[in-house]
Design a protein that fits this description.
Residues 11-71 form the HTH tetR-type domain. With 197 residues, the protein is mostly helical. It has two domains: 11-54, Homeodomain-like (Arc Repressor Mutant, subunit A); 64-194, Tetracycline Repressor, domain 2. It has helices spanning 14-28, 35-42, 46-50, 56-79, 85-102, 104-112, 118-143, 153-165, 167-170, 180-194. Helix 4 packs antiparallel against helix 5 and helix 5 runs antiparallel to helix 7 (118-143). The longest helix is centred in the middle third of the chain and has 26 residues, at 118-143.
Length: 197
């Protein structure tokens, strides 16, 4: 005699739970999303969510860390990249666009945190660390004579990443697009204007 299949909603693993949580955080804001909202959206109990994570804060930490870890992986890759600082900077910008395209909901959430929680403050501190890396590359490129010296390197870095970060507002992935065309376009517009020659 066989046991009948259990009825009910399919289970969620941590990854699918995280995807839904990030979508809700982006739609309603992190502070405006409760665990009750999340359990209703998933169609599971709050205790089923707590089976995977201890808190809503942990979901936020996992989400912003995914975006930040992607950016810092590109930065680490850039450090070992051979070439002039301007080439490293372009490599970093291109890689950052690809991280944004590949992890769009996670990067969107990262760019919307305001420092209201300990996790948000830690994420903002890591973003500032990343900004410093970009500024240092701009300074090196300026010293090497490849970047216009008439603009403060910190301003150049902010403008570059302002352009990259603005993609979350309008970019919508298309089937079959890897984001390389978008990365090419960003680099062409940015670096043709930055280079001294």
């Amino acid at each position: 005699m066989s046991t009948p299949a259990r009825r009910g909603r399919p289970g969620y693993d941590l990854e699918s739970l995280l995807q839904v949580a990030v979508k809700l955080f982006n739609e309603r804001g992190y502070d405006g999303t409760s665990m009750e909202d999340l359990s209703r959206k998933l169609g599971i109990t709050k205790s089923a969510i707590y089976h995977h994570v201890p808190s809503k804060e942990e979901l936020l930490r996992l989400a912003v860390d995914r975006a930040l870890n992607g950016l810092f992986a590109v930065a680490a890759e850039t450090e070992s990249f051979e070439g002039r600082a301007i080439e490293k900077l372009e490599h970093l910008v291109r890689g950052s666009v690809l991280v944004l395209v590949g992890q769009l909901p996670f990067v969107t959430l990262l760019l919307r945190v305001r420092g209201n929680t300990k996790i948000e403050r830690a994420a903002l501190a890591r973003r500032r660390e990343f900004d410093r890396l970009v500024t240092e590359l701009v300074k090196q490129a300026e010293t090497e004579g490849d970047v216009r010296p008439d603009i403060d390197p910190a301003v150049t870095a902010r403008l570059l990443y302002g352009m990259v970060n603005s993609l979350i507002e309008w970019y919508r992935p298309r089937r079959g697009s890897a984001g390389t065309e978008l990365a090419d376009a960003v680099c062409k517009i940015a670096f043709d204007g930055l280079r001294t020659q």
